[in-house]
Amino acid sequence: MTEPDICVVVPTIREWDCIEDYVANAREHGFDTDRLEFVLVTEDFCPTDEMQAMLDDLDVAGSVFDEAAREDWYDANGISEYSHLVPAASHAQTSFGLLYLWAHDHPYCLFIDDDTLPHDDVDFFGTHMENLQYEGELTEVASDEQWVNVLYQNFDEHELYPRGYPYSAMDEEREVGTTHVENVVASQGLWTNVPDLDAVRILMDGDLQGQAQTRTSAEDFGEDFVAARENYLTVCSMNLAFRREVVPAFYQCPMDDNAWDVGRFDDIWSGLFLKRACDVLGKRIYNGDPLCEHNKAARSTFGDLANEVPGLELNEHVWELVDDAGADADSYAAVMDGMATALADGDFDDWENGEFLNHVGEYMHDWLDALDELDGLPARQKAAALADD
Question: Cross-referenced PANTHER family, in alphabetical order (predicted)?
Answer without folding.
Answer: UDP-ARABINOPYRANOSE MUTASE 3, UDP-ARABINOSE MUTASE
